[in-house]
């Protein structure tokens, strides 16, 4: 299982890459393998300020639909436009082209609860 060292992780199997005041968010390799073939991603919260743990969208696989949660407080600034026509990018490249949203971090965004790669690896066993 691929768990990049330069990312932070949530217990909801999302990854976060912080670049300045922006956080790029996707689901982990573990999550996409558990979900199976992803067929649809819905994010109707673009331009909305949301608290950490708020639902920002859903991800639909052949077998199930799952909520996706904000890993940190901020404003949903962008949805990956490639996912509309090709949601399978999440299966193919979860840490690269398969990113899901970009968040503009608030001044009070707390990243301290996010796990490093070692802690996430222990979480998923």
Task: List key phrases describing it.
18% helix, 125 residues, alpha+beta, globular, OB fold (Dihydrolipoamide Acetyltransferase, E2P), six-stranded antiparallel sheet
Describe the 3D structure.
The N and C termini lie close together (10 Å). The protein is α+β, with helices and mostly antiparallel strands. 32% of the residues are buried. The chain has one domain: RNA polymerase II/Efflux pump adaptor protein, barrel-sandwich hybrid domain (OB fold (Dihydrolipoamide Acetyltransferase, E2P)), CATH 2.40.50. Helix content is 18%, strand content 35%. Strand 6 and strand 7 form a beta hairpin. The protein has 4 helices and 9 strands. The protein has a 6-stranded antiparallel sheet. Strands 4-6-7 form a 3-stranded antiparallel sheet, with no helix packed on it.
Largest sheet: 6 strands, antiparallel
Q: Give helix and strand order, one letter per element, not per position.
A: EEEHEEEEEHHEH
What CATH calls the topology is: OB fold (Dihydrolipoamide Acetyltransferase, E2P)
**Biggest sheet: strands side by side, in what order?**
1-2-3-9-8-5
CATH class: Mainly Beta
| CATH H-tier superfamily | RNA polymerase II/Efflux pump adaptor protein, barrel-sandwich hybrid domain
Number of helices: 4
Low-confidence stretches at least 5 residues in length (pLDDT < 50)? Answer: none
In round numbers, the mean pLDDT is 96
Oligomer: single chain
> What is the 3D shape?
globular
Query: What is the percentage of strand-forming residues?
Result: 35-45%
CATH architecture: Beta Barrel
User: How large is the radius of gyration?
Assistant: 13 Å
How many structural units, i.e. domains? 1
Total E-strand runs? 9
Query: What is the SS-derived class?
Result: alpha+beta
Into which percent range does the helicity of residues fall?
Answer: 10-25%
């Amino acid at each position: 299982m691929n768990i990049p060292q330069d990312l932070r992780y949530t217990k909801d199997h999302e990854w976060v890459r912080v670049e300045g005041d922006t956080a790029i968010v996707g689901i982990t390799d573990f999550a996409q393998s558990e979900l199976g073939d992803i067929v649809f991603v819905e994010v109707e919260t673009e331009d909305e300020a949301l608290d950490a743990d708020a639902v920002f969208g859903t991800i639909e696989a052949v077998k199930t639909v799952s909520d996706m949660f904000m890993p940190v407080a901020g404003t949903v600034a962008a949805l990956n436009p490639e996912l509309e026509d090709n949601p399978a990018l999440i299966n193919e490249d979860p840490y690269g082209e398969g990113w899901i949203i970009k968040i503009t971090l608030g001044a009070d965004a707390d990243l301290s609860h996010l796990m490093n790669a070692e802690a996430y690896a222990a979480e998923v066993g």
